[in-house]
Amino acid sequence: MPPNPDCIFCKIIAGRAEASFLFREAKVAAFLDVFPWLPGHTLVVPRRHVTGLAELTPDLGGHMLAAGRRVAAALRLGIPGCEGVNFFLADGAVAGQTVFHCHLHVLPRAAADGFGIRRPAVRPPSREELEAQATRLRTSLPAPRRAAARR
Ligand code: AMP
Ligand code: ZN
Asked: Whole-prediction pTM value?
């Protein structure tokens, strides 16, 4: 997709809005979140405007993961008390996505930092229920994309 003139992350990547970058590469960039959930909260963003996971090629997804790993290493070294890292990606408004240019949150974790994921209490399903669900989901799986379809 071409850059979206209304997209804040496209503006940042084009240099038309300010951001504090950790790095810019050919396919992805990493910059600090302006409303950090924790100090050092970084966003890894594809340079190309893709709204969500469905438009992310395996190649671009690989670049995002590799960039996220680099950021994670920097957080572990550069953020005092950082002893772990969370990746978080919201795909769709109901999942918490507010900026519709796909991005990976990279969060430095420290003991008692107050961050957490609220998990609903779901009854653990039986093996039969798990098998039935896996069967249903297998019929919904898209075919794997060919490695040649690189972008
Ligand atoms: P999400 O809710 O997963 O779509 O995350 C969007 C993130 O983008 C939020 O954590 C925002 O704080 C962050 N954000 C929004 N505008 C900017 C901006 N101009 N610079 C840096 N981060 C931003
Ligand atoms: Zn965009």
From this structure: 0.94
Residue with tokens 């990279």: 106
Task: Write down all domains in the chain, each with its CATH number in brackets.
Answer: 8-140 (3.30.428.10)
Three-state secondary-structure class, residue 133: helix
Question: Which residues does the annotation mark as catalytic?
Answer: 103
Best CA proximity match to 89, nearest among 97, 78, 100: 97
Q: Report yes or no: 107 and 83 within 8 Å, Cβ to Cβ.
A: no
Taking phi first (over 0 means left), then psi (-120 to 50 degrees means alpha), and beta for anything else, what does residue 114 get? left
Quote the mean pLDDT of the chain.
94
Phi, psi of 96 (to 5 degrees): 105, 5
Q: Is ligand 1 within 6 A of the CB of residue 91?
A: no
Beta pairing partners, 29: 24, 45
Among the atoms of ligand 1, which is closest to the Cα of residue 32? 21
For residue 26, give the DSSP letter.
S
Residues 56-98 have pLDDT tens digits of 999 999 999 999 999 999 999 999 999 999 999 999 999 999 9
